[in-house]
Amino acid sequence: KAKGPKGTKITLKTAKNSIRVSSEGGRRLDLSRMGITTFPKCILKLADVDELDLSRNMIKKIPSTIEKFQNLRWLDLHSNQLEELPKSIGKLQNLFYLNICNNKLTTKNLPEELNLLKNLRILNLGLNHLDDIPTGIGALTELKEIGLFDNALTAIPDSVTSLPKLKKLNAERNPFPDSTEEEEPADSIKRLETLYLVQEKDLCSSCLKMCKGEREKLNELKNVTPSPPKKLSFPLLLTPNSSALGNQEEWRLR
């Protein structure tokens, strides 16, 4: 079996030197763009940090020990090779920001325990392989922003769009069905056509005049070029937060 790239080995000293002060004044461990292929076990000794950035690496798996980061409020795992998340991620009760876009996640490999992140404000699931919205997302009543762009979704459930504090939803570039099916002709037009089910000689002059007027209106309606059907759109869309964007601050809560 062919082995993948060996990746960069992160030592505890390297990790300590990568701690920065975040814009909110907390301690941020920034190991982004380090060529890491395996979650560094040594950073478990720094589990008291407020923010953890492992984005733009080649990590395939997040261990269950991620639960040790109990102070974590901000977790960025975007642009890795993740195919699943551990159930223990639901124990990060202080988490308000979670970015897992641009990975290889499927709906069935997202743990139900995501619905335990009751303080989550921002969730980015874009650029994955989701064909459905995890049911637990509807329980995240504190969510203000959610990214669902570039997946395989065909619908957005009401449980998501009706989240009480949701302000921004990005669902661009999903295979939503176009609303091209025309509705049945309006009843008013059907009724106009039934006016001509009698002969003209059987109508009085006033009725005949009215029928001819309605027929002219009907012809005008038929001659109007129909406007193209509207495509499904979502208001309040954000610019996608993907590997093409260097400024990840757009998805941070101000």
TrEMBL record:
Keywords: Leucine-rich repeat, Repeat
Domain Disease resistance R13L4/SHOC-2-like LRR stretches: 27-130
Keyword Repeat: yes
Coiled coil (residue ranges): none
Gene Ontology annotations for the cellular component aspect, listed alphabetically: cytoplasm
Name of the featured protein: LRC18 protein
SMART domains with a match to the protein in the record: LRR_TYP (SM00369)
The organism's place on the tree of life at top rank: Eukaryota
One Pfam family named in its UniProt record: LRR_14
Gene coding for it: Lrrc18
